[in-house]
Structures are given as C-alpha cells and as structure tokens.
Amino acid sequence: MSLFAHINFSKLPVPTVGEAFWKCTKIDEFLNLATNTPHSAWFQKIAVAPTKFSVNFEAPPEARARNHWEIQMEFQDHGRFIWRFYRLPDNFDDATMKLKFGQHNILSKLEPGNQAGDSPVLHSYITEHQTGFLEIVDWLRKFFKCEPTDIKIRNRCITNYDEILHWQPLLNTPKLAMMKSKRSQFITELLEKRHEKQLRTRIDVVDIRHPQSVSIEGLSSLDYHSGHIDFSDLDSNFVTEYIRNFLGQENERFLVLRAAIPDWTRDQVDAFGADLNLEHFDVDLNRTHKPGYQFHALTNDSRMFQIRKDERSVLVFHFSRPTLRFGNVVITNRFDKMAITVWLLEEPQPRD
C-alpha cells in the first residue's frame, strides 16, 4: 500500500489504466488499496461484479472449531476470493493489514490455502460480530454493484434476529438456506417477506407454532427436511390447501412433516384423503419400500393414505388420536395429529 500512498488515482483514466490495474491486482490487494485511499470511488468504477457472491453464517466443516463466518466471491478474471471473519482476536498478533470500512478498522492477514492449488484466505477480526459482518457485506454490495447469490445460516449463530430480519440481502437472495430454527415468528415474517418477492426459503429442520400469521402461499414457499407445524387452531381448509401445495412441490430431501390438526373425525380424515386424491395405504408397500425417517408415533395402525412421489419414493400419511384411560374404560378422541413420511424403494441386496 505504501507504494501507492501518494498517487491520486482519480486522475488516472478508467478505460485504459483502470482496466489494466483491475486485471493485474489480486482482490485482497485491491480491497486493501480501495479502503485506505480517499479515491475509493475510482476503484469502484473499475471493479467488475463477481459471478458468485456467497455469504455463510457458518464455518465449513473442516474449520468450524475456529468459529468464523465467511464470504466467498468468484470473478471471471480472478481466482476465488475467500474472506473469513472472527469474533475473537486470537491468532492476530502477526496481522499486518488494516482495512477501513466506515467506522470499522479491521485487523487482517492473508494466509495461503491449506493445500496446493487452494486460494489464499483473508482473515479478519471484527468487533460487534453480527452487525459488523452485515455492514461489510453491505459495503461489498455497494462497491461491486451486486447482491449475494446465496446465503447459508448455521444453527444458533444469529444473535439479533430483529436486525437480520430487516437486512435486505436476507430478503432478496435467490438462495437462502438455514440449518434449523424454532423461532416461529421470525420464520413466518421471513417467509411472507420473501414470498412477496417470489422467492423460496429452505430451513432443514423447522418448527412453526403459529402458522396463522402467514398466508398459505407464504408457508408453501418453505422447503424442509423435517418440519413440525401446529395447525390445531386453524380452519381445516387451510390444512388441506397447504398439503395440496406441499404435494405440488419438488423437494428431493424431504423426510417428514409432523403436524397438529384441528381434531378431525374419521369422516373428516376420509374427506381430506378424497380431496387430495390419496390412495388408501397398501400393506404391500412394506415389501418394496422402507421409511426414510422413523419415530415412535408411526405405528402400523396409524397409516391411512399414500401417494407416489416419483419412481423411487412414496409419501405415507399417518393419523393418530390421543387415548384417555379412566380406570378400565378407554375413551378414544378425534384425530389430532398427522404425519407425512417418505418411503424409499429398497435397493436389492447384492448376492455373494
């Protein structure tokens, strides 16, 4: 940086010098210069937007113990740029770079990749970890005139849900994937906001206690592996329409949906199956398929309907009802729970 400290970059022509400067400068060097000069507008003019802009509120599997968040950017004319942010100043005693973003002076250092051929990684320590990280992403959005192409959020890494719910990249990214969430209000607000933009959301393991605060269309924009939804206080038509939308989706990683329903009689359960053109459960399915997910409530007598999903998988509908016992008298109430599980075709075992 010292070699360029006294250069007035704004006087250099963009079409010739600027374009050549962009092509021959590494991204970490480019950002170092752009954030430590009063002429950052010139650097912004010559910067080319990345083809991929990933924001990960999680560390990759090989580095989770170091507790960092990560940005990855890919460019047509540069190698992959990886930038990791840490909430603790450990291992930054040898840092020689200081990047300046607004009020943030970020202590940083560049390290080579773990293996030959890996891209170098820029490591930075920031205070106010979540707020600072969001502000850095926003600076990159403005500087490169781009938006994150995908965002991943790991379990229990968000500290301020209100802040991130109003963060525009979260609402606008084409691909949003979360590992797990039980924050029902946050989920429903997020789904409604993203559905207004015709965007889907993935939460691998989700628990929604108050679906009445979101539209059927918004709720249907959610993909999950394992879901729990409480429909008990909703109209039966809402349940039927949601499942109709659910059946029309392509979610190859789906395993199970567990739902509380509004106390249906057997006639209502049968009407539900008829409305959705479900087949009655065929016990012969036991010979060809096996459940992709098991839990104790999936008893044999609870299986009522099935529908083929594709050549390899079948969705099985389970309905159960609570049993109350008074002495030797057993009183069986209406059906209050429904589960949908995917059964997968068993592959033939190779012979010795």
Structure commentary:
This protein is an alpha/beta fold and 352 residues long. Among the domains are: 2-46; 231-352, Double Stranded RNA Binding Domain, CATH 3.30.160. Helices cover 27% and strands 32% of the residues. The chain is built from eleven helices and 19 strands. It has helices spanning 14-24, 27-35, 40-46, 129-144, 161-165, 168-172, 184-196, 216-219, 236-247, 266-275, 285-288; strands at residues 52-57, 68-75, 78-86, 97-101, 104-111, 121-125, 150-153, 175-181, 201-208, 222-223, 226-230, 256-264, 279-280, 289-291, 303-308, 313-320, 323-326, 329-332, 335-345. The chain has a 17-stranded mixed beta sheet that branches. The longest helix is centred in the middle third of the chain and has 16 residues, at 129-144. The mean pLDDT is 87.
SSE diagram, text form:
Elements: H1 14-24, H2 27-35, H3 40-46, E1 52-57, E2 68-75, E3 78-86, E4 97-101, E5 104-111, E6 121-125, H4 129-144, E7 150-153, H5 161-165, H6 168-172, E8 175-181, H7 184-196, E9 201-208, H8 216-219, E10 222-223, E11 226-230, H9 236-247, E12 256-264, H10 266-275, E13 279-280, H11 285-288, E14 289-291, E15 303-308, E16 313-320, E17 323-326, E18 329-332, E19 335-345
Parallel strand pairs: 1-7, 3-6, 7-8, 8-9, 9-10, 9-11, 11-12
Antiparallel strand pairs: 1-2, 2-3, 4-5, 5-6, 12-19, 13-15, 14-19, 15-16, 16-19, 17-18
Helix pairs in contact: 1-3, 2-3
* End-to-end C-alpha gap: 67 Å
**Which class of secondary structure composition applies to the elements?**
alpha/beta
| CATH architecture assignment name of the domain at 231-352 | 2-Layer Sandwich
Uncertain runs are: none
From N to C, what is the helix and strand string? HHHEEEEEEHEHHEHEHEEHEHEHEEEEEE
- Quaternary status: single chain
Number of strands: 19
- Looking at the structure, the CATH topology of the domain at 231-352 is Double Stranded RNA Binding Domain
Describe the largest sheet. Answer: 17 strands, mixed
Helix content: 25-40%
